[in-house]
Write a structure and sequence with these properties.
Length: 478
């Protein structure tokens, strides 16, 4: 992160795509399309491969504050007695906007909490720490859940932004530098938020907080370093927050390092961890091996969960060292099934951070790597791997990408990979089959928010506060 972290939705929250009426388009209700964080959108919602090259701006609006949240969409929301399709985004100025899908017009906005702080970790060009983690929608309760820059979790009405009774509740510890970088996740009546800090400023305890949305005063917390240790650290920095298996409700995280005088891997630091729904540790693994060429060996990634035919339930997680770890989820404590060195990260070089995306139908994993790998490994850029019949990752293709090769999580839909380029401000699309670039557009300042592919179009956000809607231009018949 220093380089650039009742009828409630007990069933619907674990699945990103839901709708309130038969025949209605599905909503995009959660970061990366599912609690498993695969970044894999249904092909029915995507432009066809032939139409991607004809994507043109349908509308563009500029909001106050940089945007790091993935745009979410809800169809047929009741607004003053009328049904409207709404797009939801949070900004680093601590505001939430509900925009009309067809025009970008503001339907409602709420100012929550933000702070202006100078730190080595900057989520925006004006040093504002506001809403960094993508909210989540709950259509059953008609709510939007979001955490602001002062560590308060809010439940807002989808139709008008009003605060639900009993909210907000604080998920960070008062008097600390704790901060929520990652997306919030709703599963089985609990809202999960991950805790890190504003870089390594001040005192903080990294961990996971679970809020009972039916009784928001009831909260559970798991600390990476244990309860009240004399040292600090162990932040969970990734944009993806936690991932959750919808089959059993288990929660997965990848953790950062503890700080001096503790060892970097004290407690559950620098580990892949599987927690139960009530945040009890079920399995964990410390997979890093010497020699180390960087001192800051965080997992700046959320475990991406997937199941492929003929393979056990698996996950992948990226470490700043340039390593990708593939685990069988039932045997995490036995270590990874496979480790891949995808980048030779040394010294002050750009680390391997962010989330990959996994397309189940094509058994393909796509990620951004910031440096060439040693010993004939992939070169810097966008890299795709296929999950073989032996349930191991085999390189499929690679394509050069914008320096420093660190950007948004890729989103895969309809045989196309969409990805924001980070500092250089581009949105690009590549063919999933061979990595051929199909389309690109320059948005402006940095693009770290994952793009949203839905309803046959693409939505993207940037650090100027820009929200962009793209749709294919009609073919001209001759």
């Amino acid at each position: 992160m220093a380089v650039l972290a009742s009828g409630l939705a007990v069933t619907g929250a674990a699945v990103a795509w839901s709708s309130t009426a038969a025949g209605s388009p599905p909503d995009l209700s959660i970061y990366a399309y599912s609690t498993e964080r695969r970044g894999n959108a249904p092909s029915s919602s995507a432009p066809t491969i032939s139409a991607v090259a004809r994507l043109k701006t349908r509308w563009h609006v500029a909001l106050p504050g940089a945007i790091n949240t993935q745009p979410l969409e809800a169809h047929g929301v009741s607004v003053h007695g009328h049904r409207r399709d709404l797009l939801f985004v949070g900004t680093e100025h601590g505001e939430v906007f509900a925009l009309a899908v067809g025009s970008g017009q503001t339907v409602w906005r709420r100012s929550l909490g933000a702070q202006r702080l100078v730190s080595e970790c900057e989520p925006s060009p004006d040093h504002m720490f506001g809403i960094s983690g993508t909210p989540t929608l709950d259509r059953h309760a008609g709510r939007l859940y979001v955490v602001d820059g002062r560590g308060f979790a809010w439940a807002l009405s989808l139709g008008d932004g009003r605060t639900a009774p009993g909210w907000p509740v604080q998920v960070t510890s008062a008097g600390t530098s704790e901060y929520v970088w990652g997306a919030v996740t709703l599963s089985r009546g609990r809202l999960y938020a991950t805790i890190a800090s504003r870089c390594d400023d001040g005192f903080y305890q990294g961990g996971v907080v679970a809020v009972d949305v039916r009784a928001p005063g009831q909260r559970l917390r798991w600390n990476v370093l244990g309860n009240a240790p004399p040292f600090y650290g162990g932040g969970i920095w990734s944009w993806g927050g936690v991932s959750v298996d919808p089959r059993d409700g288990d929660v997965y995280v990848a953790t950062g390092n503890a700080n001096f005088p503790a060892a970097e891997n004290a407690g559950y630091a620098e580990r892949v961890v599987r927690l139960g729904p009530t945040l009890k540790v079920r399995q964990s693994d410390y997979p890093l091996r010497e020699p180390f060429y960087i001192g800051d060996r965080d997992f700046g990634s959320t475990p991406v969960l997937f199941r492929a035919k003929g393979c056990p339930a698996q996950l992948v997680a990226l470490n700043k060292t340039g390593d990708v770890f593939l685990y069988d989820r039932s045997s995490i404590s036995q270590g990874p099934r496979q480790r891949l060195k995808v980048a030779d990260v040394r010294g002050e070089g750009v680390p391997l951070v962010g989330l990959p995306a996994f397309d189940t139908a094509h058994r393909t994993l796509v990620l951004l790597t910031p440096a060439d790998a040693p010993n004939g490994g992939p070169r810097r850029g966008l890299v795709a791997y296929r999950l073989s019949s032996a349930c191991r990752l085999v390189r499929r293709w690679q394509h050069g990408f914008d320096v420093p090769s660190s950007g948004s999580q890729p989103i895969i839909s309809g045989g196309v990979v969409y990805v924001g380029s980070g500092r250089t401000g581009w949105l690009r699309a590549f063919g999933l089959a061979d990595g051929h670039q199909l389309w690109s557009v320059r948005l402006g300042l940095s693009v770290y928010a994952a793009p949203s592919v839905i309803d046959g179009g693409v939505y993207a956000a940037d650090w100027r506060g820009g929200i962009w809607a793209f749709r294919p231009r009609a073919r001209v018949r001759r």
